[in-house]
Design goal:
By secondary structure, the chain is an alpha/beta fold. The protein has helices at residues 11-26, 42-55, 81-88, 110-123, 160-166, 184-188, 203-211, 235-238, 244-256; strands spanning 2-7, 31-35, 62-66, 68-70, 100-101, 129-132, 154-157, 178-181, 192-197, 228-233. The protein has a seven-stranded parallel sheet. It has a three-stranded antiparallel sheet with strand order 4-8-7, covered by helices on one side. Strand 2 (31-35), helix 2 and strand 3 form a beta-alpha-beta unit. Helix 1 crosses helix 2. The longest helix is centred in the first third of the chain and has 16 residues, at 11-26. The chain starts with a strand and ends in an 18-residue tail after the last helix. The structure holds fructose -6-phosphate.
Length: 274
């Protein structure tokens, strides 16, 4: 089990280092990626798209599973996470659309759909790299505070704070109240979790995730139990960490030893922060 904290200089630097990790795995052969939407992974997707265009990075052998989906929205809806991930990433690379999966938000039986989706991930061999953002309230996926740390993909009620945060994407103000999300237990099964966070409004959640107790109050803290989690932060998102100097020092040693998170797929870090 390792949690590796990577202190980055900027949002673009976060994206570049996350892209390094993903590229290393994708170039090895068939890979299953768990795809978060939202603002946080945007610089990562931009960098992967650039490498696809300029450095022949192919996603032809990649299967993608979105992390979550709004309930009630058909796939084609502009704000569905299926449409969003296509617009932000998949439509700009060569990932075959028939291997891009999302929970069906407008399924007649949402409970059965959630179970089907969880099973589909397992059938695909599980997620190799799960890309994650974190909500200001500590959620990952749409696992809001008080989510079970062992939860599977299921129907969840969105927290008021999350609906307010996401209202910017719904000009009519009609943010769905329910969603389907991979559970915390599902996310824990990914072989590697890569969480990217940037901005001051994430600093408190990042501090709770890394340095607080493992608690359903901060669902992202479940990553402390993950077999391999890499947490990439810009200076603002890292600003409330009380052990910042310690993380910086460990990172320097790992860099000196050539065991940077650039290739975590190939090498275990020499020093573990947690
Ligand atoms: C998105 C998701 C959410 C976001 C989180 C942060 O698929 O599951 O957990 O990662 O709400 O959102 P942004 O990145 O927009 O700040």
């Amino acid at each position: 089990m390792t949690v590796q904290i990577v202190l980055c200089e900027s949002v673009d630097h976060v994206g570049a280092r996350a892209a390094d990790i993903i590229e290393a795995r994708v170039r090895q052969g068939p890979a299953v990626l768990g795809l978060a939407t939202g603002g946080s992974p945007s610089s990562t997707y931009q960098e992967l798209i650039r490498r696809h265009r300029e450095e022949q990075l192919s996603f032809g052998q990649v299967t993608g599973f979105t992390l979550d989906e709004y309930a009630g929205l058909p796939k084609e809806h502009e704000q569905s996470y299926y449409s969003t991930i296509r617009r932000e990433f998949v439509d700009h690379v060569d990932l075959p659309l028939e291997r891009l999966f999302t929970p069906q938000g407008d399924a007649a039986d949402l409970v059965a759909e959630a179970e089907r989706y969880d099973a589909a991930i397992a059938t695909a061999g599980g997620v190799d790299i799960q890309i994650l953002g974190i909500g200001a309230n500590g959620h990952i996926g749409f696992n809001e505070p008080t989510s079970s740390l062992a939860s599977r993909t299921r129907v969840k009620t969105l927290a008021g704070a999350t609906r307010t945060d996401n209202a910017r994407f719904f000009p009519d103000g009609d943010v769905p109240r329910l969603c389907l999300t991979q559970g915390l237990g599902t996310i824990r099964e990914a072989k590697l979790a890569v969480l990217v966070a940037m901005g001051e409004n994430k600093a408190a959640a990042v501090q709770a995730m890394v340095e607080g107790p493992v608690s359903a109050n901060c669902p992202a803290s479940v990553l402390q139990l993950h077999r391999r989690a890499v947490i990439l932060l810009d200076p603002a998102a890292a600003s409330r960490l009380s052990m910042l100097e310690y993380y910086r020092e460990a990172q320097e040693f790992n860099d000196q030893l050539g065991q940077t998170p650039t290739r975590p797929w190939l090498q275990e870090p020499a020093l573990q922060q947690g």
